[in-house]
Amino acid sequence: MSIFKRILSLILGLSMPFYMFGCSAGGTAPSGENAGNGEVSEPFTGQTPSDVNADVTITVSPLNVDDFTFDGWGTSLCWWANRLGYSDSLAQKSADLFFGESGLGMNIMRYNIGGGDDPSHKHITRTDSAVPGWAVYDEKTGGFSYDEEADRDQLNVLKRCFEAAGDNALVEVFSNSPPYFMTVSGCSSGGFDPNKNNLKEESFGDFADYLAYVTDYIQNKLGITVTSVAPMNEPNTNFWGANSYKQEGCHFDAGDAQSKIITELSRAMKNYSLENVIISASDETNTGGQIDEYRKYSDEARSLIGRINTHTYGTDRIGELGALAKSEGFKLWMSEVDGNGTAGENAGEMGSALWLGGKIISDINALTPSAWVMWQAIDNHISKEGRNGNADKGMVDVNGGFWGLAVADHDNDDIILTQKYYGMGQFTRFIRPGMKLIHCGGDSLAAIDTDTGSLSLVVMNRTAKDKIANIDLSQFTKIGRKASATRTSGGSEDGEQWAKLSDISCYDGGFIAELKANSITTYVLSGCEMGDVKLKEVSIKGAKVSGSDPWNNSSDIAENVADGDPATFFDGVSGGWAELDLKKSKSFNVFAFAPRGGFEQRMLGGRFYGSTDGESWEEIYTVSSAPAAGMNYIFLGKELEYRYIRYDVAHASEYGGEGLANIAEIGLFMAG
User: Fold this and answer.
1) I need a labelling partner for 131 at 20 to 30 A (CA). Which of 27, 120, 236, 533 fits?
2) HEC string of 504-529?
3) pTM here?
């Protein structure tokens, strides 16, 4: 193995214990450098890169490891827990399936503090969405009291999920709407003008007290530790209108209104001695909106929040939000998303699973959150009777796109699982709380437990053809001897659901994996180690940059690739290119680049070249798979010397690329 590959590593922190739900990561290694400690090992029975014509190389680089530990995976309990919590049987089944060790192993549950609606209103027709409020309004006095039994169904599910999640359990309470009598419209579905604040100006304090009371009850009466409280849901939108068929949001203007509810909530939490519970905000529907709202908080409000929450239904400026949270010293949760998308090629039931897997990977790689939480695990219900005179939606089309992971069958006291459920389990069962995420690109995501050395890698194949992948782990100082493999593919009747495959022998620096068409596979290796990084930057400051025109004559010009700021980028039109003249030849053995945040796929098929005279060019590297967000480091195994560096997308179509020159940074380094 090259010395350049052996010396790469990272300073490691501590993480929480990792558990794998009985999946083995053991086995013996091939003889060679990674056999370790002079142990007798079995003969190598695997393949090496020279044995195969790999379709894709996936590099797991310790340089792309997060510097914080992962908080975990979860789902809101709104609205499905309200719908099925009447049944102890369905409540327990859901807790075991979503939060238990033999199920998905989620650990984050977001409990919805319902607003309740005017009892005379009949417009909420979704059978799960009429979440009861805890507050009982007294029309004579204008005051209110609390009914601690009002939301017993959702609480029934919460208690069971909390127990199933065990020591890793994290509970966030959040609000879709204030109680109806605190709103301008008198309706918990929204305002008559959804563009305007719907919480009465005189009710900010009462609403904050309401949230604090429920939080206190859950923590101190039920014994369920609450981690955080989120007072708003997608607040600065026009989505939430009066007399809607659901209860989901309340408009709060960015700036004063959002700052005021944060400061009022902080006051109320102190009154209840809830100092252990942080305030998170503001759960906006898209990442760009979340950036704008954070920047409009008052200084006081900004000092009172403990975490930034965002949804990713829209992902504009997604990388910028991740960078903002890091620079401000906050952890960031992706606290809600789902959808009815599909992915893959003629994927059938795997289409929804592949879409969800792609969403998880793209969100985490671009945003760098410390948690990923889906909207609701169950979105559809089957019941002949329905509820409160309203009909349930019934079974989903498993071959199409649908919201949720499973369907509750109330008629048969059962929960019907889908391939989307099993697809999510390929992530949640192996990438565990306390691990550190590693951003990989190439439809993959990795994580390492730095205490035990267990490395988990999730890889998707969203094509109709089987593929051969070279999993390059050569940048680790030590890797495991064999990789265990677990896969989900095909349909619910004749496909695979967390199927245990044969272990794969690792060559010295990685392993060769066979990726089944339209599948999600998770590989686990034990005994992996990272150490100290020793990279010396080769300065490109002062380089003369030229390039093709930016899209729409914008400011996203070629010069951005050498400005040292990954938040800026070059948005070249079709067939675009960028070229650096370093003024003199410079030596390097590590080449690095960063894609445009949120558009990593656009670098697929791009090529980098070097030249000493600007006329004769030699290829340095081809982007053969979608890269990771942030800097990607390519250890070349030899020293190169060039004055000119060029990037273009002329051959992108050969790798399925779009042919758009989107790139944020270029970097040169010396390892050693």
Assistant:
1) 236
2) EECECCEEEEEECCCEEEEEEECCCE
3) 0.90
pLDDT of residue 592: 96
Choose the final residue of a domain: 476, 498, 525: 525
In degrees rounded to 5, what are phi and psi of residue 521?
-125, 140
Assess whether pLDDT exceeds 60 at residue 424.
yes
Q: What is the CATH number of the domain that holds 489?
A: 2.60.40.1180
| 486 and 520 assigned to the same domain | yes
Q: Do 466 and 609 have their domain in common?
A: no
φ, ψ (nearest 5 deg) of residue 553: 55, 40
The upper half-sphere exposure of residue 168, i.e. CA atoms within 13 Å in the direction of its Cβ, equals 26
Structure confidence at residue 628 (pLDDT): 85
> For residue 541, what is the domain's CATH number?
2.60.120.260
Please name the residues in contact with 33: beta carbons below 8 A apart, sequence gap of 6 or more: 1, 508
Of 492, 525, 558, the position where a domain reaches its end is: 525
Distance, first Cα to last Cα, the chain? 14
Q: Are residues 305 and 452 in the same domain?
A: no
Q: Tell me, what DSSP letter sits at residue 45?
A: -
Domain that holds residue 589: 535-671
What value does the mean pLDDT of the chain take?
92
| pLDDT value of residue 445 | 97
Domain match, 271 and 410 both: yes
574 and 601 housed in the same domain: yes
Q: Are residues 516 and 382 in the same domain?
A: no
Q: How many structural domains are present in the chain?
A: 3
Q: What is the pLDDT of residue 624?
A: 85
Backbone angle region of 300, left / alpha / beta, with phi > 0 → left and psi within -120 to 50 → alpha: alpha
How is residue 387 annotated by DSSP? B
Q: What single-letter DSSP state applies at residue 218?
A: I
* Residue 530 within any structural domain of the chain: no
Per-residue pLDDT averaged across 451-462, rounded? 97
Strands 144-146 and 135-137: what pairing?
antiparallel
Q: Kindly tell me if the per-residue pLDDT of 11 is higher than 80.
A: no
Residue 325 falls inside a structural domain = yes
Element (H, E) at 283: strand 278-286
Segment 629-653 shows an average pLDDT of: 93
Q: What is the CA radius of gyration of the chain?
A: 26
pLDDT higher than threshold 80 for residue 43 = no
Strands 544-547, 632-648: pairing is unpaired
Alpha helices of 439-554 — where are they, by DSSP H?
A: none
- Which residues, 6+ apart, have CB-to-CB distance to 435 below 8 Å? 15, 16, 18, 69, 70, 447, 448, 449, 450, 456
Residue type, 67: D
DSSP letter for each residue of 608-648: EEEESSSSS-EEEEE--SPPPSS-EEEEEEEEEEEEEEEEE
Instruction: Determine, yes or no, domain membership for 50.
Output: yes
Q: Is the pLDDT of residue 419 over 80?
A: yes
Digit-coded pLDDT (tens) for 169-198: 999 999 999 999 999 999 999 999 999 999
Average of per-residue pLDDT across 371-393: 97
Residue appearing with tokens 């459920």: 421
Q: How far is CA 667 from CA 165, 323, 474, 581, 591, in A?
A: 43, 19, 20, 13, 6
Q: Are residues 64 and 141 in the same domain?
A: no
Inside any domain, residue 131: yes
Residue 189 sits in the same domain as residue 301: yes
Query: How large a percentage of the chain has pLDDT more than 90?
Result: 87
